[in-house]
Structure formats: C-alpha cells, structure tokens
Amino acid sequence: MKVTRVLGATAMLLGLAASAQTVRAQAATSAWTTSIPSGKGEPRGYVQYQEYCAVCHGAGVGKPGTIALAAKYKGTKPALLSERTDLTPQLVKLYVRNGITVMPFFRKTEISDADLDAIAAYLTRNNKKQ
C-alpha cells in the first residue's frame, strides 16, 4: 500500500515538473503570455521576472500563481508579487530554488544565479530601506 502511494506521489510530482517545463518552453511563443519587454527604463530584474515568473505570477486572467496567492491572502497582501513590499531576497531565492506547494523548483541551469539575483532585486525594490 505504501509503495503504491509513493509511486503515485512520484508520478504526480513528475507530471507537475513536466507541465512546468512545458509552460516555460511555450512562454516565449504562447498567446497565453505577453511578449517579453525590452526592459528599457525598467528596474533591474524586470525582464527576467517577465521571462521566468510572469507566466504564473503576472497580472491578468489565468495566472495560477497570482490566483493562488489571491486565495491565500484574501486581500491582506497583494496577489501580484511585483506589488509586494514584504518579500526578502532570501525568501524569493528559497522559493525559486526549492519550490513551494504546487510551484516547481528551478535549477541553476533553468534560472541562473545572476538572473535570480536580478529577480529578487526587482521583487524587493518597493521594500522600505533599512
């Protein structure tokens, strides 16, 4: 019985990982996403955020990360990560590298450390300076 559960859970996780890979691969050409902007005049990390994160965490209809955060926080915090003021670079990196709930983890070969640093800087740009 335990073996069946472990195999089922493993198959589910592999399916989620494969789905995430497919979404990322289609992101640049899919009508589901917006085109990746040039980044001219945008904060550091904006282009990387649009490339890697906005497919799930962007504004608009059908963004599963934004929908999940809206349901979780029920208006107490913004559902859009780009509007948050409570994120830390360490937390962003932890979630990206390890995943959380249904969000898959991203390897260094998928999102480089430099790109992740830029994304973390972008998502923490609105934080109060200490």
Provide a short characterization of the protein structure.
With 130 residues, the chain is mainly α.
**Domain module tally:** 1
Taken in chain order, the helices and strands follow as: HHHHHH
| β-sheet strand percentage | under 5%
Q: Which structural category fits the helices and strands?
A: mainly alpha
Q: How many E-type strands? A: 0
Judging from the principal axes of the Cα atoms, what is the shape?
globular
Characterization of this structure:
By secondary structure, the protein is mainly α. It has one domain. It is built from six helices and no strands. It has helices spanning 2-27, 46-52, 54-57, 64-73, 89-98, 113-123. α5 (89-98) packs across α6 (113-123). The longest helix has 26 residues, at 2-27. It is globular and about 40 Å long. The protein starts with a helix and ends in a 7-residue tail after the last helix.
Layout: helices, strands, pairs:
Layout: H1 2-27, H2 46-52, H3 54-57, H4 64-73, H5 89-98, H6 113-123
Helix pairs in contact: 5-6
Key words describing this protein structure:
6 helices, 52% helix, 130 residues, mainly alpha
